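Bit of a strange request maybe. I'm writing a small parser for structure token strings and I need a real example to test against, not something I typed by hand. Could someone generate the tokens for this chain?
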Amino acid sequence: MVNISTGFSPFQLRMGRAPRLIPPLISNNAPIPDEMNHSAAIELIEQIERDVSEAQDNLLAAKISQAEFANRRRSDEVVYEVGERVMLSTKHRRRKYLQKHSG
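Reply from user aminoacidic:
Good idea to test on real output. This should exercise your parser:
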């Protein structure tokens, strides 16, 4: 399953390709010369590096988009001066205090 933020499946980022859904039609038991193995391995590693790099870029873009969306709903920060009186809720403090002394 493709991750919305990265644009890739975890399998694709690890293996460099999408998983096969059906068995291959050609047997993979045919011998392959060493030179082909070497170039195929290098190509696979480069593909994985490109995919991981693109996934990191996609994650950064998703993070920026999510922060932008979250910041739209935030109100301006209230700045308090030293000496100002404020009211604090102790609702959760009382619960923790009672739990600590009930046992």
